[in-house]
Write a structure and sequence with these properties.
Strand 2 (24-31) and strand 3 form a beta hairpin. The protein has five helices and six strands; from the N terminus they run E-E-E-E-E-H-H-E-H-H-H. The chain folds into two domains: 11-43; 50-149. 13% of the residues are buried. The chain is α+β, with helices and mostly antiparallel strands.
Length: 150
Amino acid sequence: MVCPECGCTEDKVLETRVSKNKAIIRRRRECVECKTRFNTQEEVIRTEFHVVKSDGRREELNLQKIRSGLEIACRKRPVTSDQIDKALEQIQINLQKEFDREVPSKEIGGLVMKSLKAIDEVAYVRFASVYRQFKDADEFIREIKELYSK
């Protein structure tokens, strides 16, 4: 670490604390040269995923888009924000296990559908209707029959 006062690169750690979710480590440091005390934070920086769209375009994975899709599908349903948070977290874990840096958008849609199916069937059908681009009521009926046949 570089001292913010004198620029010295030598310091000693006085105290270390781990955040509640254990994702961040805070350290209280003291510069050995000028004795200035300062705090630092350490956290894991994951490799960024890129989504490969069906038309071949690539864009950075945006977890807020996934959350938004989950929230829209669950609107006016008895689904808590905690359930949505857990679903999003599980989707992230699955992506990190299965893919290195690029993930096809179809895989993300499939993971969202799998999560919604476990949370709320109506939210699942809502999302499926948009994701699979249902064209008529027959496609809704087929999806619902498939949902109950398993």
